[in-house]
Amino acid sequence: EPVDVDKITAEVLDRGKTPASAKEIELRFQGVRGLTVYGNENQLVTAVANLVENAIAYSPERTTVTVTTSEDNGYVEIAVADQGIGIEPRDIDRIFERFYRADRARSRATGGTGLGLAIVKHIATNHGGRVTVTSTVGVGSTFTLRLPSRPTDAALAIPPSVEIGGAS
Ligand code: ATP
Ligand code: MG
């Protein structure tokens, strides 16, 4: 089904509000409005929300997390940029594996399970897209979810989201 990218980012920014304000992190939106992707809205919200959750978790207090949308050559890109701890080059190829956590994250008091990015990668691939990352230790990371802006066989094969109690 067609999914309004503005709806995805609005929902993600709303979910990120509370964890961001707990660390006085500014959660910003920047970019193009009115973009459409194809697939399952709930899955796409889950994917972007996982990226924002990580950006907040792996950043110090009083930094900025920016969600950017753009269009490039038949693809919509949703990027999540942080000013956080960054990722060592030796870890960067492994963070999308299930249960993999870099040392800095592993030693954090508030631990995760290492599944978030594996789920993001799965959702991206399922939608005929991909997720990439660029990062510099001590400076920050940017994760980019790239999704086809036209209906693909992969995206159309995904069952649509069912709105419970929503208008049809
Ligand atoms: P979970 O998401 O299951 O609660 P997690 O956050 O550790 O746990 P992933 O989201 O899969 O798992 O991330 C894997 C690892 O990648 C993290 O443990 C961390 O080492 C690294 N990582 C992910 N996002 C960032 C980021 N924005 N900045 C720095 N490191 C990151
Ligand atoms: Mg995570």
UniProtKB/TrEMBL annotation:
Origin superkingdom? Bacteria
Histidine kinase domain residues = 1-151
Q: Where in the cell is it found?
A: Cell membrane
Q: Which stretches are annotated as coiled coil?
A: none
Q: What is this protein called?
A: Sensor-like histidine kinase SenX3
Q: Which residues of the full protein are shown?
A: 199 to 366 of 366
